[in-house]
Task: inverse folding
DNA sequence: GCTAAAA
């Protein structure tokens, strides 16, 4: 049984080797030759957790192995003797709309997009993976290696998922072991399923009190999934409904800009998993129509966005000021393609003894996306865009219309570009925060269907949205943050398919030159000579490319232990508190990142980011 | 300063 990080990697190696994919347990150079031998086995806290990923055989409804749970035994909320929450799980399933729209008495026969399911797994070979934390559960190679239960497995087959994507191979066992998780995985790699499967499975097999009677107007979900935009919440809800079909697990979505009454009615009918945007959730909490006291699972999608300046106070309010159980009692999972260190530091407030997971291609932005940068003066952008669109039209593809997503900086700019495109004969629509929710959803539908194959968008569409057939992402205005660039171009090249991203660059973007050219280099993209000159000239623009550069992110806890006595980037006092110190204080990487609760006292703060900027 | 998120 693995007792350290290094052992877990070894276990992963074996598992991978036996599965025929001997590159997936790639150990990056900076992690090789770490000797775990000086580490005492760290079993006191974690308990005999990681080795016991169930090997199938458990029937649905049979109690799952108690792997990894002992570490949380103090938590309560796990009281035995409750009725199974889903005791009457076939109640109402006759009325449940078939989200697949296929067989089995579907009342909703709208054909479903199957292209998503055709995941190109060849694109996922040879992917570097980094994990850290105590007793990291080993990855699995197939869905059959995990005991998710018959109902969930059936839905996985309905989704045409043949085998788990890399992030799913690693994240699902970690999550099934009831461990907190900070996961970094490239755009379009299947993160939603990675947190939904364990949540649904956990709710099905867990011993939870029955859903409150309909009379009670306060809904008490067991799981909360937060996301930064309404459309992303809608999308997560749609996916989660497929995964939860006929499992008895009820998924409800709540977001702003739409009438609240229908959402209230849905909540009254019972909810196990609530998918929400922060503003509407706060509203529901204030009205006492939702209580978080039963929350067992908390997932933040696009977690770095959720914890940046604009969102952080609201999230802190929801997670820390309401009635949600604390870290260690609930299970918390944070997912994103990007995870800046300063955000990791904030995020660790919400986590207990968590596993850090980074899964991604070298360079973190997938090299399935061909990235181009063109020097275009502000005044020439429109005609240049028109040239691109003309060329694309000339190359006309058969079958599905190729879609082009154009990102701009401002809402007004989006409107005016849309108007200009339309008046020049290009069928375009736009999505941004000044449009009504109806208009936003209509625009997205029209774009997805190919009816309006050009979508002009602000950053509202930058993250998470899974839009099949986006062939081209144009950064008409570059963002001011390289991470936003990564998310934007990630709207193409999804599910292992290729895509093209073109950026318009001029003097106004000089602060991005360095990070952009570094990112492109890491993704094996051709960097134009003029951009390299810009990058060399740029003084301190942009943000430092993350840590080792090989991953979309690195566990900031590692940096703490390795940063030359800990005084170069952070205050020395900060280093040894909370997460910083490995158990021996000798910089050994394995184990010992433990016991986060307390110990922080807000000791990080002002001075921390300055080293980067 | 921009974007997002409750009316």
Result:
């Amino acid at each position: 049984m693995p007792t350290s990080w290094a052992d877990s990697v070894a276990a992963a190696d074996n598992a991978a080797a036996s599965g025929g994919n001997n590159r997936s347990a790639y150990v990056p150079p900076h992690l090789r030759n770490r000797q775990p031998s000086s580490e005492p086995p760290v079993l006191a806290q974690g308990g005999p957790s990681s080795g016991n990923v169930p090997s199938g055989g458990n029937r649905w409804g049979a109690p799952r192995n108690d792997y990894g749970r002992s570490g949380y035994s103090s938590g309560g909320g796990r009281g035995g003797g409750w009725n199974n929450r889903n005791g009457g799980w076939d109640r109402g399933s006759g009325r449940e709309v078939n989200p697949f729209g296929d067989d089995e008495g579907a009342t909703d026969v709208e054909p479903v997009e199957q292209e998503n399911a055709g995941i190109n797994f060849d694109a996922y070979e040879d992917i570097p993976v980094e994990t850290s934390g105590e007793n990291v559960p080993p990855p699995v190679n197939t869905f059959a290696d995990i005991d998710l239960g018959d109902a969930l497995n059936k839905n996985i087959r309905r989704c045409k998922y043949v085998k788990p994507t890399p992030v799913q191979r690693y994240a699902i066992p970690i999550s099934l072991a009831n461990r907190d998780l900070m996961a970094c995985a490239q755009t379009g790699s299947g993160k939603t399923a990675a947190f939904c499967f364990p949540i649904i499975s956990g709710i099905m097999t867990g011993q939870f009190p029955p859903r409150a009677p309909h009379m009670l107007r306060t809904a008490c979900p067991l799981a909360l999934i937060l996301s930064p935009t309404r459309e992303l919440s809608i999308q997560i809800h749609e996916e989660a409904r497929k995964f939860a079909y006929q499992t008895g697990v009820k998924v409800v979505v709540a977001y702003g800009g739409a009438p609240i009454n229908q959402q209230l009615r849905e909540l009254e009918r019972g909810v196990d998993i609530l998918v929400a945007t922060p503003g509407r959730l706060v509203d529901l909490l204030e009205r006492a129509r939702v209580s978080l006291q039963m929350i067992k699972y908390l997932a933040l999608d696009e977690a770095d966005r959720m914890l940046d300046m604009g969102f952080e106070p609201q999230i802190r309010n929801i997670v820390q000021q309401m009635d949600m159980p604390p870290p260690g009692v609930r299970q918390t999972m944070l997912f994103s393609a990007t995870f800046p260190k300063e955000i990791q530091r904030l995020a660790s407030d919400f986590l207990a003894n968590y596993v850090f997971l980074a899964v991604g291609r070298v360079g973190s932005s997938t090299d399935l996306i061909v990235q181009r940068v063109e020097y275009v003066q502000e005044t020439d952008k429109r005609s240049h865009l028109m040239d691109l669109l003309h060329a694309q039209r000339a190359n006309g593809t058969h079958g599905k219309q190729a879609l082009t997503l154009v990102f701009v900086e401002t809402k007004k700019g989006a409107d005016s570009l849309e108007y200009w495109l339309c008046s020049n004969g290009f069928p375009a629509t736009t999505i941004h925060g000044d449009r009504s929710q109806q208009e936003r959803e209509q625009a997205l539908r029209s774009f997805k269907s190919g009816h309006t194959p050009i979508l002009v968008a602000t950053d509202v569409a930058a993250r998470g949205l899974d839009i099949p057939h986006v062939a081209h992402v144009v950064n008409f205005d570059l963002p001011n943050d390289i991470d936003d660039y990564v998310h934007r171009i990630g709207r193409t090249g999804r599910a292992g398919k290729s895509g093209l991203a073109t950026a318009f660059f001029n003097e106004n973007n000089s602060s991005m030159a360095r990070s952009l050219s570094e990112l492109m280099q890491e993704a094996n993209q051709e960097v134009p000579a003029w951009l390299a000159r810009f990058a060399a000239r740029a003084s301190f623009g942009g943000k430092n490319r993350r840590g080792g550069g090989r991953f979309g992110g690195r566990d900031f806890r590692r940096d703490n232990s390795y940063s030359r006595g800990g005084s170069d980037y952070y205050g020395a006092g900060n280093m040894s508190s909370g997460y910083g110190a490995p158990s021996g204080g000798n910089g050994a990487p394995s184990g010992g990142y433990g016991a986060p609760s307390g110990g922080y006292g807000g000791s990080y703060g002002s001075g921390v980011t300055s080293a980067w900027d």
About this structure: The first helix of chain A runs from residue 5 to 18. Chain A has a mean pLDDT of 75. Residues 47 and 70 of chain A are 6 Å apart (CA to CA).
